[in-house]
Every structure is written in structure tokens, then in C-alpha cells.
Amino acid sequence: MLFSGVEFASAEGNVGVVVGQTADYTYAISRTFRDSNGTLMTSTPFNVDYLETITILQISGTNVTFEFERDLLNGTEETGTSWVNVSDGDGTGSFVIISANINEGTRLYPDWTNENGTSEGAPSINETILMKYGDTMMEVNHLNFTYWIDEQPRSQNYYWEKSTGLIVKWAISGQEVLEDDTVEAFNIHFHRVGLKQIFYPYIDSKDYPVAVESDSTILGFEFNQTERALNLKLTGKTGTSGSCDIIVPDNLFWGTFSLSMDGYTLVEGEDYTQTHNGTHYTFNIGYIHSTHVIEIEASEAVPEFPVWMILPLFITATLLAVALYRKRLHSLPMD
Questions:
Q1: Does residue 249 lie within any of the structural domains?
Q2: DSSP 239
Q3: What is the CB neighbour count within 10 angstroms for residue 142?
Q4: Parallel, antiparallel, or unpaired: how do β-strands 152-161 and 63-72 relate?
Q5: Residue 146 lies in a domain
Q6: CA triplet 173, 175, 179: central angle to 5 degrees?
Q7: Residue 135: CB partners within 8 Å, gap ≥ 6?
Q8: DSSP state, 311?
Q9: Cβ-count burial of 184 within 10 angstroms (0-12 exposed, 13-18 middle, 19+ buried)?
Q10: Distance CA 8, CA 113 (A)
Q11: Which pLDDT tens digit goes with each residue over 184-233?
């Protein structure tokens, strides 16, 4: 987004970033297709499209210039520079960096004005929350936009590190009704590497949030209900050590587990640990970085049909069988 500002004597934005500061991110898309009754037809699991590094190049007053480098997973690269004035939001990098150390109800850019030269409609912080980042809790400012396009809802959520004003996470979600009444729901994810991520396997309408805490770059996530298997793809700088905690609700899958990495079986107590707190299983896995695919298989998983559907289906099948049996009796010849 580009917000044009008119400079006037007022409050001044706080620059929280420093020259040379860098941050790594992933950009991913996921989507589902459901019929008009809400039943899941097909889905595209979380899949990263590109990796991005933002580097602060120059600071002049309240103007911040930064470079972005994107490594697309199709093998191409993109680089460029942007800038933003953290006082009025002017520049090509608006919403990437905001004024630092601001609080709930405060404008992102204290001198922001609209085309009429007033502050009406100025975007402001909704709340300040804590997010898990590596081994620490990060204080984060959050802003939500909710709007409608073609009578369909859209939601955008921005999260910035409070102390620096640098983007931590950006997410957009929405849906569209297609010509055949199929409903397409999509999610765009822009995450800082190292930030705790929550994934939602696509199973009917109930949520089964799976949390992943890792110092690796997460490239993909998928849960296969039929195979009772969870797959996580991740990467990192070759030769460095990495680890991840995969936290799974025990109503998603349970029983006996087997874990593998890149097709090789992992041994509990040597390659990973498994714990259960009464509601969730946590799998902690350590490895040496390259690109890995971790798979967790369970002996039991949430059924293809929810429990509430099984009884009506059973009753329907029983009534149909009785009806066919009676019809057969009536068709038999009488002595």
C-alpha cells in the first residue's frame, strides 16, 4: 500500500531499525474448495512460493531505505529497494516498517494524512500482544483490516515488532463463490523465519491447529487424513544444526506413532522425543540443516466422516436395506 502524506508540524515518527539489520521471511499460499453445503472437495496445502530477506540500507531523519531479496523456489531471484517515512507513511515501503514503540490506539504513522489533508481514516494499532519467536516472547503491534469485495469478506492482519517497527507477519484471507457455487477460500502467509507458526489441516469445518516452533525455514505443511500422516518440509543453512517442535492436538491423530526424515526411520530417544500433556502431543526433532521432509504417521486419526455423520448414514443405510428386503418379499411368488 502507498499512503501519500502532507508534511506539517506535528509529532515525529520513531525510527527503531538500524542500518545493517536484516530479517528473513517466507511467503506462502494455501486454499480450499468446498461445495455449497460446506463439504471439503479439495485443498492446496501450505506451500512456500519464495524466501525473502529485508536489509536496512540507510536512515536519514525519519526516512528508512531497505533492500529486499527474493529467492523464488522456481529458481529465479528478485531484488529491489524501497523506502518509507515512519512519520507520515510516505514511500514505496509503507506497512513494511512503521513507527517504533507505539501503543494500542496510536497511529502507525503519527503525521499520516488523507487526500484532504486530515487524519481521518488513519490506520492505528488495534492491540499489542506477545508472539513466540525462537526461545523468547516478542512484543508485537497488531492491525486488522476487514472489508468486502463482491459481497465476500476479506481480512488482512499485520504484525510489527514493537521495538523496531519492522514487519513480523502479514496474513490475508478471503473467499470467493465460483460459477458452480463452489466456494474457494484462500490464505496468504508472510512470516518471519523463527516465528511460531500455526497450521490448520483441512478437515470438514472443525479446526485442528498444529503448532510448529523451529529455527528452520518452513517450506511446506500437509496433513493426509486418509494416510493418517503429517508432513513438514523445512530447510536451513547447510551444515548448521536445527530443531523443531511439532505440537499436535490429540483429537487429530493418536495411538502408535512412527517418524521418518527423508524416508529414513527416526528412533525415539535418539533422533526425537515425544511427550503428551493430556491434550497435545509434542515431537521434538533435531537435525543438521539441508532441506528435509519430516513425516509423522499415526495408527489412529480423525475419521473421514465426523462422528455426528456416521449415525445418520447408518440409519439411512439400514432403512434402505429394510425397504429393499420388503420389496423383495412382495415380489416373491405366492403358493
A1: yes
A2: T
A3: 18
A4: unpaired
A5: no
A6: 160
A7: none
A8: H
A9: middle
A10: 10
A11: 888 999 999 999 999 988 776 677 999 999 999 999 999 998 999 999 99
Domain tally, the chain: 1
C-alpha closest to that of 97 among 88, 267, 105: 88
Cα–Cα distance, 71 to 58 (Å, whole number) = 23
Please give the mean pLDDT across all residues of the chain.
Answer: 87
Closest CA to 266 of 232, 226, 221, 300: 232
Q: Identify the CA nearest to 299 among candidates 249, 227, 245, 251.
A: 227
Q: How far is CA 6 from the centre of its chain?
A: 36
- To 10 degrees, the CA torsion angle through 316, 322, 328, 334? -160
Containing structural domain, residue 291: 196-330
E strands, 13-151, are 22-34, 40-60, 63-72, 77-85, 127-133, 136-149
Residue type, 158: Y
E strand or H helix that includes residue 281:
strand 280-288
Q: With contact defined as beta carbons under 8 Å apart, do 228 and 258 qualify?
A: no
Q: CA–CA separation, 132 vs 195, rounded Å?
A: 6
Residue 37's pLDDT is: 82
Query: Looking at the DSSP assignment, which residues form a beta bridge with residue 221?
Result: 46, 232
Element (H, E) at 112: none
> Which residues on adjacent β-strands are paired with residue 213?
245
Q: Note whether residue 277 is domain-resident.
A: yes
> pTM for this structure?
0.82
| Longest CA–CA separation in the chain, Å | 106
- What single-letter DSSP state applies at residue 193? T
The answer to whether 22 and 55 have CB atoms below 8 angstroms apart is yes
56 vs 93: CA distance, rounded Å: 12
Q: Cα(54)–Cα(161) distance, rounded to whole angstroms? A: 14
Q: What are 210's three cell numbers?
A: 498444529
CATH of the domain at 243: 2.60.120
Measure the CA dihedral 97/101/105/107, to 10°: -40
Q: Is residue 85 part of a domain?
A: no
